[in-house]
Design brief:
By secondary structure, the chain is mainly alpha-helical. It has one helix spanning 38-65; strands spanning 10-12, 21-23.
């Protein structure tokens, strides 16, 4: 896992249960329970929904509503059975 500040590798200084990670370059000590902030998850979800909407929903909507797409004419229905 790289350091969030400078991107260098992290090492452990202690072997006891509260393991602390320390950056090799900037000597920053990371918190014991380093977690992803909730805003990061919200932004990732937002971009995922935006990409899905932009690459899937919008093209399908444009293709279905576009007057320039030539519609394939349907073949006329034929009644195979003539019994009435």
């Amino acid at each position: 896992m790289p350091c969030p500040r400078c991107g260098a590798r992290l090492i452990t200084k202690t072997e006891q249960p509260p393991v602390r990670l320390v950056c090799v370059e900037c000597r920053q000590v990371l918190p014991q329970n380093a977690q992803v902030p909730i805003i990061t998850l919200v932004v990732r979800h937002f971009w995922g929904v935006t990409l899905l909407f932009g690459f899937v929903v919008v093209p399908l909507l444009v293709m279905s509503l576009s007057p320039w797409i030539e519609r394939v004419p349907r073949a006329p229905r034929t009644h195979l059975s003539t019994t009435r």
